[in-house]
Amino acid sequence: MKLNKIIEEKKKQVEREKKKETAKNIAVGTAIGTALGAVAGLLFAPKSGKETREDIANVSKEVVGNVKEKVEEGIDLTKEQYEKVKLNIQKNTEEAKAKVEEKKIKAEEEAKKIEEKSKEVVKEIDESLDETKKIVEDKKENIEKTIKE
């Protein structure tokens, strides 16, 4: 059951990663689209060349800032998800180790019970052999007495 849970968590994580990647692509696409739109607007605006160049430089700086911000957000989000996954893996590993230890202890207890039962059976067999030996010796003595008579 635990394996199924881990697999489901991994699937959910992969889906989240895909959604993040999609959101990131949309954000980058939006930033690029905005930049291109702004540049096109500046190029076709009725301004002097100097003003247009200044506007392009300003918009370029703004776009670069937006892209950097989106990339940093993506990096932060990735780091956050990495830490969550890391903690989840550590938790699952600790739980698995605890269960293995628990099973080991139970197995050792069962092995001790089996050993004790085996010793009891061996003792009973020894006692039974002793009784059989006594019976055989008694029969032997009876046969020897009968032969002598």
From TrEMBL:
InterPro entries assigned: Desiccation-related_membrane, YtxH
Chain ranges passing through the membrane: 26-45
Entry keyword Transmembrane: yes
Stored Pfam families: YtxH
Keywords: Coiled coil, Membrane, Transmembrane, Transmembrane helix
Domain of life where this protein originates: Bacteria
Record flagged with keyword Transmembrane helix: yes
Coiled-coil parts of chain: 68-149
Record's protein name: YtxH domain-containing protein
Originating organism: Soehngenia longivitae
